[in-house]
Amino acid sequence: MSLLKLNKVSALRLRGEIYKKLGKYSKASMDFSKALEKEPNNVLALRSRGKTYQKLKKNKKALTDFNKLLELEPNNYLALRLRGETYLKLEKYNKALTDFNKVLEKEPNNALALRLRGETYQVLKKHNEALTDFNKLLELEPSNNRALKLRGETYLSTGKEPNNAYALTLRGVTYLKLGKHNEALADFNESLKLEPRIQYVLLFRGETYQKLEKYNEALTDFNNFLELEPNNNYALRLRGETYQKLKKHNEALTDFNKLLELEPNNYLALRSRGMFYLKLEKYKEALPDLDKLFELEPNHALLMLRGEINRILKKYNEALTDFNQALEKEPNDTFALIL
């Protein structure tokens, strides 16, 4: 009988693990709960249910499971780390710190615990301690992008002049968003001197050059970036726009076409290509893009524009339909009345 009971508990737990891997967290938690009804002290089921509750954002329930697990196994360092992570989500930062400290006393090179403790120090505004953890983490995992980002953010929080490429990049992006393009450019240039392999800096610098109307320099950066990531939608759009500014119309069209092959409903790409066709007075080619734009986001301005193109193409019935719709939405629109 006990063997049958054990088999059923094991089957429930294992099925729960499969549900968890498939992202079916509610079903997983039900199986773990059924297993725990039969074996309340099953540490594997407690841990798995706690992790599942984390996924479901039921952090208080997760905490209950990890607390019970640690009553049963006080030196279970995985459970300590999981409980610390749960405390962090519940904004109980000092308790989180206590758990991460215990884990790192036993496992000083535990990369995940280092990151989580660093994040906790960040929230507590203990920036020097956070930097120590992120620096150690990056010694263990030099290519850990998340750790690089966290360290860069911490440098910015301290107000210290950043001396690493990622921190400079973060500050440059902030300057770019604020419209401080010369300051952004200086940071991106310095970042690429320190670490030429951070390819996204090329994209950000290219965008900055574009804002500064330095289109040839922008084009060079976009070309270099797209050699590394040929299907990057954002870079293709920016390069297409840059080609437009340089009056390289065929190259611009190639980029917009490729972008729309990758992402047929990309609103900005459709708008860019549609406007490009209009500038070249290629009204037949512009019309399908405007139709698609209107499907994605109907608005009065598009109706007016499409009506005018239909009128130019002598599609008078279609033009009339567009202008009628435009006048229903904006009955006092002088432009529509004149047409």
Q: Which architecture of the domain at 76-160 would the CATH scheme give at its second level?
A: Alpha Horseshoe
Low-confidence stretches: 1-6, 334-339
Count of alpha/pi helices: 20
- CATH homologous superfamily heading of the domain at 76-160: Tetratricopeptide repeat domain
Structural class determined from secondary elements: mainly alpha
* Average pLDDT for all residues: 87
CATH class of the domain at 76-160: Mainly Alpha
In short:
It holds the Pfam family TPR_16. This protein is mainly α and 339 residues long.
Architecture overview:
With 339 residues, the protein is mostly helical. Among the domains are: 8-74, Alpha Horseshoe (Serine Threonine Protein Phosphatase 5, Tetratricopeptide repeat); 76-160, Serine Threonine Protein Phosphatase 5, Tetratricopeptide repeat (Alpha Horseshoe), CATH 1.25.40; 298-338, no CATH class. The protein contains 20 helices and no strands. Helix 14 runs antiparallel to helix 15.
Can you give keywords for this protein?
TPR repeat; TPR_rpt; mainly alpha; Ycf3; Serine Threonine Protein Phosphatase 5, Tetratricopeptide repeat; TPR-like_helical_dom_sf; 0% strand; disordered C terminus; 339 residues
